[in-house]
Amino acid sequence: MANIAAQRIKREFKEVIKSEEVAKCAIKVELVNDNYTELKGEIAGPPETPYEGGTFVLEIKVPETYPFNPPKVRFITKIWHPNISSVTGAICLDILKDQWAAAMTLRTVLLSLQALLAAAEPDDPQDAVVAKQFKENQDMFRQTARHWTFIYAGGPHKNSDFDLKIRRLTDMGIEDHQARVALSSYNWDLERATEQLFS
Amino acid sequence: MAEGWTQNVRCRYYANGMCREGEACRYLHQEHAGSSLGTSLRTDLSEIRCRFYQRGSCVYGSRCRFVHAGEVSASSTNNVSQNTSMASSSTTLKNSPTHINKNGQGARYSQKTSVLKKQGISSDSGIWEDSDENWVNAPEFVPAGKDNILKTAEHVHLKSYAEVLNPVAGKRVSSPQPNLSSSSNKKKLCPFKEAGECKFGSQCVYVHGDTCDLCGHASLHPQDKEQRKKHINECIKQHEQAMELSFAVARSKDKTCGVCFEVVMEKSPREQRFGILPNCNHCFCLTCIRKWRQAKQFENKIIRACPECRVTSDFVCPSMYWVDTKEEKEKLIKDYKGALSVKDCKYFKSGRGKCPFGNKCFYLHAYPDGTKADVGPPVRQRRHSADIDVLQQVILWDFLDERENRWLYGIDELDDLVAFFSDSDDSDWSDYELFFD
C-alpha cells in the first residue's frame, strides 16, 4: 500500500475517533485489518427519517491511490433507499465517484452518507425500483424504509402488517429476505409479489 | 528627543563602577560591560571582543565570556546618525580625555580594550574627534611594553585604532572637508580587516573600517560617509530580509497539507514545499496538489479545483514558505511568472516552433536575436479536426506544473532545463490539456 494512503488513514482514524460525531454516536470507524486498507464504518440513521434509530454498517475499502481516489464504500446493512442498491449495498453518491476531492476524509464521507439518507436523490438512482416507489408513493416508501430499518438496522418501528405478509410468503417456502424484497418492490401487494416470485 | 539619544550611550563611569549620578544619569547603565575597574582576568575577558563573534559565528552566543560587539542594543544602532550629528557638542566628549588620563596608567590593557569597545559601540559617535589634543596620550600611543597579550588579535585591533583616528588626523592635515573630497582621495577598505583581522595592523595600506553595529564587520569606511550610509542601508536591508524570512518560517512551520495531512515543513526536505493556489487560501504541499491536478480519472473541472473548497485555480505556484496575506501572495506569483518569463518556451523554440499556448504562455517567446515575438492568442480548439484534437488535451498550466519543478532549483540551471525539455519532447501530449479561459 502506498505510504501516503496508510499514513493518511491513520491520521484520519484518530481524527474520527476524537470527533464530536463519535461522541454523539452518529458515526464510527473500526479497523478491519492491520494495514489500514479496509475499515468498517457505522452511521446512525438521521432523525426524522425512516432510518431513525437504525445503525448502518458500511464496508470501506481504501485504494492504494487514496486520497487521490475516493474510498470504495458500500452498505453492509440492507437498506431501502433510492440511491443505495437494496441488493448489493452499492452507493450512488457523486463524491464517491467523479466529484471526489483529495481533501475529503473518512469523516466527511460518513457524514455525507448520513446526509444522503436524509435527502435522497431519486433522479440519480442506484436502485430504480426504490426510486420509482419514492417518486410515486412517498408514504409507501417511508413505511418500507422504516420496516427495513427495523429488521436490518435495529430500528424501533415494528410493522405487524408487513411481518404478516412476509410470513404468508415464507410459509410458502420463500426465503425471508427474498419475500421482503418482492413485497417491497410491489408496494406490499401480496398477490403481485407472489406472482413475481412464482413466475 | 532632546536627551533621548544619550540613553543609548553607555555610561563610562558606570562601566567603571563609579558613576555618581546613579539612577539619574543621562547615560546608559548597563551591566554588560566590565562593571568594575578591577584588573581581574574576568574583567579583562569581558572587555575583549569575541573574535569568533566578529566573524559571525560564536558558538557560545550570549554565554560567551568575551564581548559581542554587535550585541549593542538595536536602539544605539538606530542612533548612529544622530550621534554623528550631535557628537561634537556632546558632553561625552569632554569626559573622554579625563577618562583616559585617569585610567591609562594602571590597568592599561583593560582600559585600552574598553576604550576600544566603546569606540566600537558608538562607532560613529565621534567621541574622540574633539579630544585631539589628548589622543596622543591614548593608550595606543603609549608603548605597551612587554605585555604579551599584545600578540593576540586584540593587538591587531589596538593597532588599528590609529586607523580609526585617521579621519580626525586627516581632516586636520590634508583635507578640510573630507566628506566632500573626491573618491580618489579615499583609501580602500581593507578586506582582511573587514572579514575578521588584518595581520598588518596599522601598517596596512588599506583603511581599517569601523565596526558596523549591525553586521559586526569592520565595514564602515572612516571617511567615506556615503559608503557608511550605503553599508548601513545594506545591513538594514539584510536584517529586514532576515526578519522576513524568519516570519515566513514562523508562519509556515505548523501548516499542514490538506491532502496528505502532514505538516509540510516536517516532510522530507525535498517535499518541504508549498503549492500555492492563486484563487483560494488552502494549504497543500506541492507534491500533493500537483498529483491531484494530474489525476486522470476525474474531469478537469474537479482536479483544477481546490480539493477543499472547489474554487478553480489555473496554476499552482511553488513556494518555500506559506503566504498569508494577499500582498505576499501577489508578490510570490509575480516573481514566479517573472522567473518563467525569461526562459525560452520549448514549443516556440526561438521561432522555429509553434507554441499552442500563444500569448497565454508563461514562457519566453523570443527570436535568437532577442526580439520578442507576438504569437497572438492560443490556437482555438476545433473538435472536428483530428490533428488539433491532440492539442485539445493540453493544458498550459499543467504543463507548467511539470516544468516549474525546475524553476525551484534555481534559474541558473538553465542548461539542465534545456536538457530536461529536449528529453521530454517526445512526451505524450495527450497527458496535458490545453487551457482556454
TrEMBL record, chain A:
Q: Which Pfam families match?
A: UQ_con
Q: Which SMART domains match?
A: UBA, UBCc
Organism domain of life: Eukaryota
Q: Which residues form the active site?
A: C92 (glycyl thioester intermediate)
Q: Where is the signal peptide?
A: none
- Database matches in CDD domains: UBA_II_E2_UBCD4, UBCc_UBE2K
Limits of the UBC core domain: 4-154
Q: Does the keyword Nucleotide-binding apply?
A: yes
> InterPro entries per the record?
UBA, UBA-like_sf, UBC, UBCD4_UBA, UBQ-conjugating_AS, UBQ-conjugating_enzyme/RWD
What EC class is this? transferase
Q: Which family does it belong to?
A: Belongs to the ubiquitin-conjugating enzyme family.
The record's listing under PANTHER family reads: UBIQUITIN-CONJUGATING ENZYME E2
Q: What is this protein called?
A: E2 ubiquitin-conjugating enzyme
What organism, scientifically named, is this protein from?
Answer: Zootermopsis nevadensis
Q: What is the lineage of its organism?
A: Eukaryota, Metazoa, Ecdysozoa, Arthropoda, Hexapoda
From TrEMBL, chain B:
GO molecular function per UniProt: ubiquitin protein ligase activity; zinc ion binding
Q: Which GO terms describe its biological process?
A: protein polyubiquitination
Cite the InterPro entries for this sequence: MKRN-like, Znf_CCCH, Znf_CCCH_sf, Znf_RING, Znf_RING/FYVE/PHD, Znf_RING_CS
Is Plastid set as a keyword in this record?
Answer: no
Q: What is its EC number?
A: 2.3.2.27
Instruction: Identify the SMART domains for this entry.
Output: RING, ZnF_C3H1
Protein name (Swiss-Prot/TrEMBL): RING-type E3 ubiquitin transferase
- For region Disordered, the annotated ranges are 77-115
Give start and end of each RING-type domain.
257-310
Q: Residue limits of the C3H1-type domain?
A: 5-32, 44-71, 184-211, 339-368
Which superkingdom, per the lineage? Eukaryota
Name its species.
Zootermopsis nevadensis
Q: Which UniProt keywords apply?
A: Metal-binding, Repeat, Transferase, Ubl conjugation pathway, Zinc, Zinc-finger
* ZnF endpoints (C3H1-type): 5-32, 44-71, 184-211, 339-368
What is catalyzed by this enzyme? S-ubiquitinyl-[E2 ubiquitin-conjugating enzyme]-L-cysteine + [acceptor protein]-L-lysine = [E2 ubiquitin-conjugating enzyme]-L-cysteine + N(6)-ubiquitinyl-[acceptor protein]-L-lysine
